[in-house]
Please model this.
Amino acid sequence: MKKSKRLISLINLNILLLVYSLSSVCSKIASQHEFMSLKFIFWYGLVILILGLYAIFWQQIIKHLPLNTAYANKAVTIVWGILWGMLFFKEVITWNMIIGAVVVIVGVVLVVMADE
Model:
């Protein structure tokens, strides 16, 4: 695969994973509302919508990338989860989280570079 097409596919994959990670934010917000209230249904419905779109676009992404590269990149959602927790829920980022995120990113980079 051409490097430019591969790069575009990797960028698209990471945008997709960013959107996918938002399903966890919506899920946590839904859990803060009374079960089956309108707010709960809205936020949980958003989770289902995001996961549905993710499933459709994931199929398109894996047509253009090696499967091990695509799955290795899914670990990046851990980094997004840390950022979303800080931004939306005022969670504190610890050194252990930072070290873990760095390990994840290094692992993803190593897998992606090995597939070139």
The chain has a mean pLDDT of 90. The chain has five helices and no strands. Residues 3-114 form one domain. The longest helix spans residues 3-31.
